[in-house]
Write a structure and sequence with these properties.
This is DNA/RNA-binding protein Alba-like domain-containing protein. One of its GO terms (molecular function) is RNA binding. InterPro entries: Alba-like_dom_sf (IPR036882), DNA/RNA-bd_Alba-like (IPR002775), UCP030333_Alba (IPR014560). The protein is an alpha+beta fold. The chain has one domain: Alba-like domain (Translation Initiation Factor IF3). The chain is 44% helix and 28% strand. Helix 3 packs across helix 4. It is elongated. The protein starts with a helix and ends in a 5-residue tail after the last helix.
Length: 133
């Protein structure tokens, strides 16, 4: 039993798809506000240098909007866009329904760190009541 516990403690996952999942955000257009996802994507890019935004169906417009906000603010560069359809079942016995899927991979822009530092300075100044230029 001790050998099993030791083996589990020393377990390393080498599957490349596992490592990619940690920087993926699956976006819903009903669960969280738009800027929740924008700020989450910024945080993911700070730690992983890139983020993958993923959505199904009606949430695709939300993912595209998030990507455009990040790109227009100079924070991200588009690396890859993939579209596909997947089969989903609404009920256990129902027929499969095809849903559109999008995955957008964004990477840090060259000025990402500079822009994030300026935003942090502006936020700190606002907290102190100082006018920031």
């Amino acid at each position: 039993m001790e050998g099993l516990a030791e083996g589990v403690n020393n377990l390393r996952i080498t599957d490349a798809s596992y490592n990619k999942k940690k920087n993926r955000i699956q976006v819903s257009n009903t669960k969280k506000p738009l800027f929740f996802y924008v700020n989450l994507a910024k945080r993911y890019m700070q730690h992983n240098n890139e983020v993958e935004l993923s959505a199904l169906g009606m949430a695709i417009a939300t993912v595209v909007t998030i990507a455009e906000i990040l790109k227009n603010n100079g924070l991200a560069l588009e690396k890859r866009i993939m579209t596909s359809t997947i089969d989903m079942r609404e009920d256990a016995g129902g027929r499969p329904i095809q849903k559109a899927k999008i995955e957008i991979l964004l990477g840090k822009s060259e000025k990402f760190d500079e822009i994030m530092a300026a935003d942090a300075d502006a936020a700190a100044a606002a907290e102190e009541g100082i006018e920031y230029e």
